[in-house]
Design brief:
The protein has 297 residues and is mainly alpha-helical. 70% of the residues lie in helices and 0% in strands. It has helices at 6-13, 26-30, 37-64, 66-70, 87-104, 112-131, 139-159, 165-193, 206-229, 231-237, 246-261, 269-275, 277-295. Helix 3 (37-64) runs parallel beside helix 6 and helix 3 packs antiparallel against helix 7.
């Protein structure tokens, strides 16, 4: 492949990872406002803005980890580590993604200030994460989970939708669960090769990871049930039937634990979502059931 080709640069900004920023639209969905054109547009703008800012972080992460990535069995294929994208072009891609993402916020009008503040907090947090925080076990996964909470708040501010405390807790817990599952993949690789893929991997082991996955999955499920039964949610949605969607949340958690523990395929949650048909069907059924209950009540 030609150096600094468009294809290689696109790989650096990782558009496939943008699926994570769907969390920006969660307030709209749970708030029953997906059919409001103006608010949906604001959510979409925020989605792309957050995605571009996140891409800037991906560029920065690959830049500072270039030497470590070259020694990694999988990450050595990344464009910067493999030499397909030069460092000057990587820095330019980082700056372009960040500036474009922030400029997009101008389309939000007065709400751009609140959303912009959230994005700057997210950016600063992840710069610190790339430079330091990812070296510390537990702190690393909590930082990642908090980043998804910031996505949630960005969507809430952009659309003017107040967030339930249960939604905030669920977002933190489910992403903490996924992060622990991803770390399990690193622990397995360390046990097979004798080398730690990350500096903090030596502070994890299978016993701890398995217990952490079980705890976070259990609390996430309880939190979701509390959300569906909470008086404020029942009053806002005008229905007592949201608890019926719990079955899909349980199935989704069990399926992901199966992929993690039995199939050992938890290395990249995004790839699991894009490739595992069972998971896709569960998520689709959950979304359709939730939609029918919320929008037809």
């Amino acid at each position: 492949m030609e150096r600094n080709s468009v294809e290689a640069i696109i790989k650096v900004i990782r558009p496939k990872q943008w699926i994570k920023n769907v969390f920006v639209l969660v307030p709209l969905f749970f708030g029953g406002r997906m059919l409001d054109g103006a608010e949906l547009l604001a959510g979409i703008i925020t989605f792309f803005s957050f995605s571009l800012v996140a891409s800037s972080i991906y560029c920065f992460n690959d830049i500072i980890d270039v030497e470590a990535d070259r020694c990694h069995p999988v990450k050595c294929r990344r464009p910067i580590a493999s030499g397909k994208v030069s460092l000057p072009v990587a820095y330019a891609s980082m700056a372009f993604s960040f500036i474009t993402g922030m400029v997009l916020l101008l389309l939000l009008g007065q709400r751009m200030w609140q959303v912009g503040g959230i994005l700057l907090c997210y950016y600063a947090l992840n710069i610190i994460y790339c430079l330091r925080l990812k070296q510390y076990a537990i702190v690393d996964v909590c930082t990642i989970a908090f980043g998804f909470v910031l996505r949630l708040f960005a969507g809430g501010f952009a659309t003017g939708i107040a967030l339930s405390q249960w939604i905030v807790m669920m977002t933190f817990l489910i992403t903490l669960f996924l992060s622990f599952a991803k770390r399990r993949d690193d622990v397995l690789r360390m046990e097979q090769t004798g080398e730690a893929p990350r500096k903090n991997t030596i502070r994890y082991n299978l016993t701890f990871i398995n217990q952490a996955i079980t705890i976070t999955a259990s609390v996430t499920l309880v939190c979701y049930i509390m959300y569906t039964l909470s008086p404020e949610v029942v009053a806002r949605t005008q229905t007592h039937n949201l608890y019926l969607t719990t079955i899909f949340v349980l199935l989704g958690l069990l399926r992901y634990i199966q992929l993690t523990v039995v199939d050992k395929r938890s290395g990249d949650p995004t790839q699991v979502m894009l490739r595992d048909r069972f998971t896709q069907i569960i998520v689709l059924l959950w979304a359709l059931t939730f939609w029918v209950i919320i929008y037809n009540s």
